[in-house]
Amino acid sequence: MPVVNYFQHLLGERGLAPHGFCLLWDPALIWTHVISDALIGGAYFSIPVAIAYFLTHRRDVAFGWVVWLFAAFIMACGATHFLSIWTLWHPDYGVEGLVKAVTAVVSVMTAIALWPLLPRAISLPSPGQLQAANTGLSLRIAERDAALAALHRETAERERAETMFRQSQKMEAVGQLTGGIAHDFNNLLTIVVANLDRIRRLTEDDPRLDRPVVNAIAGAERAAALTKQLLAFARRQPLIATECDLNAAVDDVRTLAGAAMNGIALDLDLSPDLWRVNVDINQIENALLNLVVNARDAMPGGGSLTIATANVSDAIGDCVEVAVIDTGAGMAPDVIAHAFEPFFTTKEVGHGTGLGLSQVYGFVTQSGGTVAIESELGRGTTVRIRLPRA
Asked: Comparing 318 with 335, which gets the higher pLDDT?
């Protein structure tokens, strides 16, 4: 067969002289060629190894098969240089020719495959473009995170507003019911007290009847006081609003409450430039006394109690805030949810009517302000009253 004969002729012994013969076996020439071809061949062989290492660790490279073809081309080139060293002493020019032929084929294939890929290679983003894209992506991620955080805050604020609205509706309904009952009951008590007082005048000379009548009058008066508190919760009590300085009212409350603090220090943190408010001074002092007494009762083992004032601006505009802050037992969330309801109390039977906070709520709301409780079990409670600036 012609092909077999061709390879037999190419690889057969034909008495050719080794390449060193042409160099007259000059040691300087021989070793110059040997060292040069060895270094070139070694360099050629190291490049495909580096390419193979890169491709095995970066399987996402889009031109992988072309790179493998390029690596084969470089290895073939390196093989020709090692065969050049071999043929210095051994005239195997047929083998060298075959290796060069393989190198030529691989070279042509690599060149043909490379040109169509040049546009794709040129279109690859530069390191600067990649850095700019990463920077832009980081900015977009930061903007998305900020938008998500704002959305979460808005959602939480909406839920808080809805909860406050439902609580306000419930308190309004309870207030209307309570106010109606208290008003009618107070009218009845007026008649009862008036008739009891008349009976006392008629029986004051009879000691057997005088004491029971006096006790009945005292009970009716206590009942009248309770209805007054209920009317305060229902925002039906008459208020005499005057422009006043709440710092002075807070200072008066400290004086009034001083003897009843059971050794608990009552500190003041007053804003020196506090805005003035239009409020019933007697009612605000009563409300603060209620809060101070509640705070004292929440610290049977001692603690700290502070009344602070400040100028604030919120949804209802410029306000003056009075905060009563204690380090007592604190309240659970379910207790806070019912704290302003009339007759709700966590105290033992006989220790309070449960009308103190409801009276505070009614008075503050009737005065156009807001009252809120912040508390955590074991960490204390803060009650914030905000009243519109005068």
From this structure: 318
Rounded to whole angstroms, the Cα distance separating 343 from 108 reads 98
Angle (CA) 265-267-268 rounded to 5° is 160
Domain residue ranges in the chain: 2-123, 238-390
pTM above 0.85, yes or no: no
Which residues, in sequence order, are CB contacts of 313 under 8 Å at separation 6+?
319
Q: Going by C-beta distance under 8 Å and a sequence separation of 6 or more, which residues neighbour residue 240?
A: 280, 282
How big is the CA angle at 32 (ends 29 and 37), to the nearest 5 degrees? 125
Structure confidence by residue, pLDDT tens digits, 139-164: 889 888 888 888 888 888 887 777 66
Name 14's Cβ contacts closer than 8 Å, sequence gap at least 6. none
Contact 349/310 with Cβ under 8 angstroms?
Answer: no
* Domain 238-390 top-level CATH class: alpha beta
Angle at 12 between CA 9 and CA 15, to 5 degrees: 110
Going by C-beta distance under 8 Å and a sequence separation of 6 or more, which residues neighbour residue 194? none
- Cα separation, 114 vs 315, in Å, equals 69
The angle at the Cα of 25, spanning 19 to 30, to the nearest 5 degrees, equals 70
Amino acid at 239: L
